[in-house]
């Protein structure tokens, strides 16, 4: 059921010209899934040249025809949901149910941008001189270099590809080498939807080498990346040299404020589901829980009980509720953060250990009273770890929530209308959800502030990110 691994350049599925490759592993059992070819410098130049030609073809394609192809791709994704989901579970580890939902959500994104691409309107501007006509037209920015990480290996590429293509751009995608099959399955859906050759390429290799090659190329006019803060800053420096348009969706360390007036059991159950989805490997995962002191013990008890009963296992097993971490590297990083927090005086409530000696399984973990100098209070855990603190006043909770340089998502639970307004305004994040953990939908912008990046994906802003305005004035004689 696993996807055939290859490069996708100018409509052709092929190996790298220098024969370099790497193994792709199943994180649940360490088995090899296949050999992933790496693109050489010459291969990357071919991909860039194809994207340049593809852009000239695609920008001249009417929005109606672009919509037709994108809608067909979305339909193919839905038809192949079981195959794509199985591929994703094999290489990434998440449960097959989560994988299915991701594929269907990605198809919704492609459909939404297909429709939104027909509404990239310009405007007429009233002139001061009646003999002067002034209008603003929207044009695609040009070929795009897109970089995505491994935690949502279909949804993240779909966001970037769909928006770029809907705007009239071509795209060179560099997905994660740890989860290549999912992105290739997505590219195959676009090819089978009759996307012209050269409009989409998919390449792999040593990440730093590929990113530098693509971003420095004069062919590329827009760069979009989902990844860590460190990688985002490095790519931003490269993009600055060529004055490339840039969208960065980087890390998060999401706070959750739980006020005293909530339904404790209900919110705790909801929080466990949100926290341990994809084994906590979610950039918007709730991580720092600030709970009112009046309900702190009760809330923590409900949370720990629900977390302790989660069934860990291979994501392909329908009974599994949480799969493994994506790699042994990620497992070691999580272990290091927890060990450091406990060494510095943090209290381990539950979990805090690897499960088994095969695969990358780590128990759902809850820490409380973690000291401010612990690394986990500053570094994004990106794993199944929840941090608990109590607060007495909302002002104190907001201050703690805003204390880090992250600003992707923030959450709050309260029944008080005045608190809803206050928290919505005062939490420093690109996305704030109140009494909910929903921050990502195709229709609304997704992105952060501070070190969590800039620019927006999804929503109308996600399409605008791949377009430029052209002002046209005409003297009527």
What does this structure look like?
The protein is globular. With 477 residues, it is an alpha/beta fold. Strand 7, helix 5 and strand 8 form a beta-alpha-beta unit. 39% of the residues lie in helices and 20% in strands. The protein folds into 2 domains: 267 residues, Aldehyde Dehydrogenase, Chain A, domain 1 (3-Layer(aba) Sandwich); 188 residues, Aldehyde Dehydrogenase, Chain A, domain 2.
Which helices and strands occur, and which strands form pairs?
Elements: E1 7-9, E2 12-14, E3 21-25, E4 32-37, H1 41-59, H2 63-79, H3 81-92, H4 96-116, E5 123-125, E6 132-140, E7 144-147, H5 155-167, E8 171-174, H6 180-192, E9 200-202, H7 207-216, E10 222-226, H8 229-241, E11 245-249, E12 254-258, H9 264-276, E13 286-292, H10 296-308, H11 328-343, E14 347-350, E15 365-368, E16 385-391, H12 394-401, E17 409-413, H13 417-426, E18 431-434, E19 453-454, H14 459-464, E20 467-475
Parallel strand pairs: 7-8, 7-10, 8-9, 10-11, 12-13, 12-17, 13-16, 15-16, 17-18
Antiparallel strand pairs: 1-2, 3-4, 5-6, 6-20, 11-19, 14-15
Helix pairs in contact: 2-4, 2-5, 2-6, 3-4, 3-6, 4-5, 7-8, 9-10
